[in-house]
UniProtKB/TrEMBL annotation:
PANTHER family per the UniProt record, alphabetical: DTDP-D-GLUCOSE 4,6-DEHYDRATASE-RELATED
InterPro entries for this protein: Epimerase_deHydtase, NAD(P)-bd_dom_sf
Family: Belongs to the NAD(P)-dependent epimerase/dehydratase family.
Coiled-coil boundaries: none
Domain NAD-dependent epimerase/dehydratase: 12-239
Pfam families associated with the record: Epimerase
Protein name: NAD(P)-dependent oxidoreductase
UniProt source species: Streptomyces liliiviolaceus
Domain of life: Bacteria
SUPFAM superfamilies: NAD(P)-binding Rossmann-fold domains
Length: 311
């Protein structure tokens, strides 16, 4: 497969550069020799070593964003902004308004950059076990999170089909590994385990569900490959291609913590979810188009989840 080389002196802009995915993507790009423009509302240790722009992309006029990207000679924009809001307004702002302004900004540029948008496997909606979710599955999202994420992805795909941008959408499964956000189930479990004590056991409620999880470092490698890939106008699933019981994930995390078994009690019970109780991504297209496959075992990912918590 022939890649698309970036022009000398050009940069890759990472939107959401201070989040769990964004900081890992920025680091992976830098390791491959790309200059990174880290874009986030606030800077910090995650942006050290990169050119930083403090910006709320959903709040600025598209023309202002276009000028910023032009000034920094950005040839690819990677959107890994996240939105873990709880209201419809918050989700629309993070998942739709932001993407609308980003797509408009790209179309305003004389030398339009490639646009890599990281969406969610939940955009497909709930599926029945044991179905593997392929890119040809018609999305039927059932939650506000999934519906707004899908709307953002479709903005990128529609603009690409119309010839206004060169875009590709990665639909990622649940993420684990270094700095997993506290807003996620596994991030919340890490916080609970850090307060566990054998004399006062922590009770963890775990859903009877099986989901596809991927280490954020594997996802970052997929993004790096997508930056220079000729593939365009498509959706590509990124996952492990395995459905793992939530109870098994918690057991791996407890083992990584080194806590004695008596310090934790696990009970069955429903938990809030952004999607369905079963996710299993068909990742064959990622291998064919990007030459990508997951490499990090879940046990190692759980160790990293424990050893490198969110800031």
């Amino acid at each position: 497969m022939n890649g698309r080389p970036l022009a000398e002196g050009s940069r890759v802009a990472v939107l959401g550069a201070t989040g769990c995915v964004g900081r890992c993507v920025s680091a992976a790009l830098a390791r491959e020799g790309h200059e990174v423009l880290a874009v986030a509302r606030r800077g910090g240790p995650a942006t050290a070593g990169h050119v930083f722009a403090g910006l709320d992309v959903a709040a600025v006029p598209p023309a202002e964003l276009a000028r910023l990207l032009t000034r920094h000679r950005v040839r690819t924009v990677v959107n890994v902004t996240g939105g873990w809001g709880t209201t419809e307004e918050e989700m629309r702002y993070a998942h739709i308004t932001l993407v609308e302004r980003l797509v408009k900004a790209v179309t305003l540029m004389d030398d339009r950059p490639r646009l890599v948008h990281v969406g969610s496997i939940h955009e497909y909606g709930p599926v029945a076990e044991p179905l593997a979710i392929g890119e040809d599955l018609e999305p039927r999202p059932a939650t506000m999170y999934a519906r707004t994420k899908l709307a953002g992805s479709e903005l990128v795909l529609d603009a690409t089909r119309a010839g206004r941008v060169d875009g590709l959408v990665l639909r990622a499964v649940n993420v684990c590994g270094p700095r997993t956000t506290r807003a996620s189930f596994l991030g919340a479990v890490v916080d609970r385990l850090r307060g566990a004590d054998a004399s006062d056991p922590v009770t963890l409620r775990v859903a009877d569900a099986r989901r596809d999880f991927i280490d954020v470092r594997d996802l970052a490698e997929a993004v790096v490959l997508t930056v220079t890939s000729p593939a365009t106008g498509q959706v590509v699933n990124i996952g492990r291609g395995e459905a793992t019981a939530m109870r098994e994930l918690v057991d791996l995390l407890v083992a990584a913590s080194g806590l004695p078994p008596r310090a934790i009690r696990v009970e069955d019970g429903p938990i809030a979810s952004k999607g369905g109780g079963w996710t299993l991504a068909d990742i064959r297209l990622a291998g064919e188009l990007l030459g990508w496959k997951p490499r990090i075992p879940l046990a190692e990912a759980m160790r990293a989840t424990w050893e490198t918590p969110a800031d």
